[in-house]
Amino acid sequence: MHIPLVHSAPVTVDANMAKNLPLTATDGLVDMRGHTAVVAGTYVFDGPNLVTGWHAHDLHQLEYAFAGTIEVETEAAHYLLPAHQAAWIPAGLCHNSILKGVRTISVFFVPDLVPDEGARARILAAAPVIREMILYGVRWPISRPRSDRAADSFFTALAALVLEWLEHETPLCLPTTQDPLIRAVMEHTNANLATVTAGEVCGTVGVSERSLRRAFPAATGMTWHQYLFESRLLRAMTLLAEPGRTLLDVANEVGFTGSSFARAFARHTGETPSAYRRRVAGDRR
After folding, report:
1. Best CA proximity match to 106, nearest among 43, 166, 60
2. What are the DSSP E strand ranges found in the chain?
3. Does residue 218 lie in a domain region?
4. What is the extent of the structural domain holding 214?
5. 133: left (phi > 0), else alpha (psi -120 to 50), else beta?
6. Do the beta carbons of residue 59 and residue 27 sit within 8 Å?
7. Whole-number average pLDDT of the chain
8. In this structure, are residues 250 and 273 in contact, taking their beta carbons and an 8 Å threshold?
9. In angstroms, rounded to a whole number, what is the distance separating the alpha carbons of residues 63 and 60?
């Protein structure tokens, strides 16, 4: 599949622009429309690594990653968006996005167009028809000065599909916490997925294993071993979306043996690592 992002100059956003998104004067929300009356539109990003900083939009955001990896942090959770998945970020939700060599298209909707009672971020496995509609929507950037009947009809139809789609989220998120000790445990764990052990992480952050067994579930709702398992699988999904890696390479990099990796991946995602990689590769073409 050809993704014509870099050729869409009128709507391509570079890293410097993304760091300086305009805020509304009244509520501190990013004003994606520039005070126009359009009900929806797209926003394309094709750039280097970027940390957006904590912010919130005045519109709902649906962000689809064609390449690279996006992490979305909210107060409640830490979400991973590998290539060929989409993130839903409701209007007004404060979040921080970490973009790593990505090409993405976001669709922004006025809240009335997609009534979302969840008020939380979600990761969604994009159906082919929605991916194609997101690509088609690039002709109507959210920054355009005015709307028209064709654009409104198109985005109303897409909004209806998205509303149904929100009921089928993908569990690609990890808990987060403000506890500095547990945050240090998480950071060390994610930086050393291939080799980390409970004893090693406890020695690094200065806590006993007994204390970790009590404190980690109290702060996150899961044990440290569960967190490690989920982190390894989420990192594996990101690596499988990158070309040129063997399944064994991916398994070793995240701390699995080949056979245990295939079983764990299939049990968690419903498909084997090779089937997932073929699907992602097909989407990329």
Report:
1. 43
2. 12-13, 40-46, 50-51, 60-73, 77-81, 86-89, 96-109, 122-124, 169-170, 173-175
3. yes
4. 177-284
5. alpha
6. no
7. 81
8. yes
9. 10
Please list, in sequence order, all residues whose beta carbon lies within 8 angstroms of the beta carbon of residue 87, skipping any fewer than 6 positions away: 61, 62, 63, 65, 70, 72, 79, 81, 121, 122, 123, 124
Q: Tell me, what CATH number does 34's domain have? A: 2.60.120.10
Q: Which two tokens stand for residue 66?
A: 């064609």
| Confidence band, pLDDT 50/70/90 cuts, at residue 118 | low
113, 102, 104: which is closest to 162 by C-alpha?
Answer: 113
Cα–Cα separations (whole angstroms), residue 235 to 43, 159, 203, 241: 26, 30, 24, 10
pLDDT in tens, 145-188: 998 999 999 999 999 988 888 877 766 678 888 889 998 999 99
| Phi (first) and psi of residue 283, to 5 degrees | -60, -40
Q: Could you give the number of structural domains in the chain?
A: 2
Which amino acid is it at 70? I
Cα dist. 150→23, 139, 188, 234 in Å?
A: 29, 11, 50, 39
Q: Rounded to an integer, what distance in angstroms lies between the CA atom of residue 114 and that of residue 117?
A: 10
- Return the H-helix or E-strand segment holding 181: helix 180-191
pLDDT score recorded for residue 67: 75
CB-based contact 45:69 (threshold 8 Å): no
Strands (E), 74-168: 77-81, 86-89, 96-109, 122-124
Do the strands 50-51 and 96-109 form a parallel or antiparallel pair, or are they unpaired?
A: antiparallel
Q: CATH number of the domain that 246 lies in?
A: 1.10.10.60
Structure tokens at 63: 């962000």
Q: How far is 59 from 101, CA to CA, in rounded Å?
A: 25
- 21: helix, strand or coil: coil
The percent of residues in the chain predicted with pLDDT above 90, rounded, is 39
On whether residue 3 sits in a domain, the answer given is no
